[in-house]
Amino acid sequence: MISWKELDAMYPFGQYSRGSEPTFRLSFHKSERPNHSAISAGLDPRTLSIALSANNLIKIIRAFKLDDGAYQLNEVLEMNTHAVVINDIAWAPGCVHMRDLIATACDDGCTRVFEVTTPHNKRLMASSSGESPPLSLNKQDSLGSGYNTKSGIGAGLENASKVKDFKRGTGTQWIRHEWKEVAKLAHRESLPAWRVQWLYDGSALASTGDSGTLHIWKQNFNGQFVEFAETALV
């Protein structure tokens, strides 16, 4: 690295006191641009996206490129997962999809997958009030696809999606972000999961924990995440 500069700075979860351990993790969306749905909703194709986690909270940050070439960080979504401590987080690559997938490795021995979407309509796109709409909570029906088929975990997960609207750093359009948990994948060993990572094209997910076993997860034809393979230490 020859040169670098600080683009912006923020405390997304506030400042923790000395001695506390928030298990802070982050993951960049590594594709060259946001997904097609987000761009259709008005998101600048040059926007950088970051997922941050601390304890059981996830926040989505969009970094907008300003006219002078600098970036402005904006929190666009807060996800209270109601799960145990999150040890790792990974944003699935790929910009051709109409949604984003974010996976977490959790202290209860589960890998969770969350879906983030940017639904939009003419009313929101035409909004120019200059004030951010209030944060609202939408209750949704249980999903039939959000379970670990191999372990027999039922599909009746309790899901909720939070919606938060925000004003773009350069413009008057509003972009709506929604989220929901689509999979809870239990490690057979029931030990803490520490690391999670997507395959380069987002087609598969790998997770591991204290047992040293590597679990590979993929979606089947019904969109359900199932265990495709696992490897153990020899």
Helix and strand arrangement:
Blueprint: E1 25-28, H1 36-40, E2 48-54, E3 57-65, E4 71-80, E5 86-91, E6 100-106, E7 110-117, H2 122-125, E8 136-139, E9 160-167, E10 174-186, E11 193-198, E12 205-209, E13 214-219, E14 225-231
Antiparallel strand pairs: 1-2, 2-3, 3-4, 5-6, 6-7, 7-10, 8-9, 9-10, 11-12, 12-13, 13-14
Notable features of this structure?
single chain, 234 residues, mainly beta, six-stranded antiparallel beta sheet, four-stranded antiparallel beta sheet, 2 helices, 14 strands, 4% helix
Written description of the protein model:
The protein starts with 24 loop residues before the first strand and ends with a strand. It is 4% helix and 43% strand. The strands form three sheets. A six-stranded antiparallel sheet has the order 5-6-7-10-9-8, with no helix packed on it. The chain is mainly β. It is built from two helices and 14 strands, in the order βαββββββαβββββββ. The chain is globular.
Summarize the structure.
By secondary structure, the chain is mainly beta. Helices cover about 5% and strands about 45% of the residues.
Decide which structural class fits the backbone: mainly beta
The proportion of residues forming helix, as a percent range, comes to: under 10%
Q: Termini distance?
A: 39 Å
> Which overall shape is indicated by the principal axes computed on the Cα atoms?
globular
Biggest sheet strand line-up:
5-6-7-10-9-8
Low-pLDDT stretches: 127-173
